[in-house]
Input
Amino acid sequence: MPDPFAGHPEWAIEPPRPIVPVPANMGGNLRGRRVLIGLPGHGWRGDLRADEKVVQGSRTYVPVMPEAEWYRAEAERTEVFAPLVPIERVWVEDEGMSGTTAKPNDVAGRLVSLDEPPRRSPVAALDADSLVGRRVVRVGDDGKEERDLRAVTELHSSDDGDICARVTKELDWYRWGWSGKTPSTLEVPLNELWVE
Output
């Protein structure tokens, strides 16, 4: 039986929206948001979460902590140490506009500016080097994105013979690290899985 969707690329589900860093001083609530910290020309650090801005004198700071500590503090309702980072050194990971972006094949096409953190376009799970521990996005048949997931397996064949990977919610991923409690997982088909 022929595939009714073949030859109609406009019917294909679009990839998830890319991650577009935005300066934290652009406003908005920062509590719980994923952030990057760094200094233009020097480099960037990710896998961090922010709390609300703090003003001391004439300076504004953002409390920033590793994502694992953020999840533990939220789950166990505890206080954690969060260094105060000057707001001009904090960038919020925002979701940009969706659309297809071809990955450049040459080195020159992959160069970025050091003035700001680079935009990150999602990569289909099939094209990713590895999955375990990576942030993933599940895109359903309706195009709805499910984020804040981590892959717990590489691609494998399910009992039904489908290619898939197991994922878990990020809270469960981090809880696995601090408590040893094995997370509940969901088997996601290859065509629904993207790496952030």
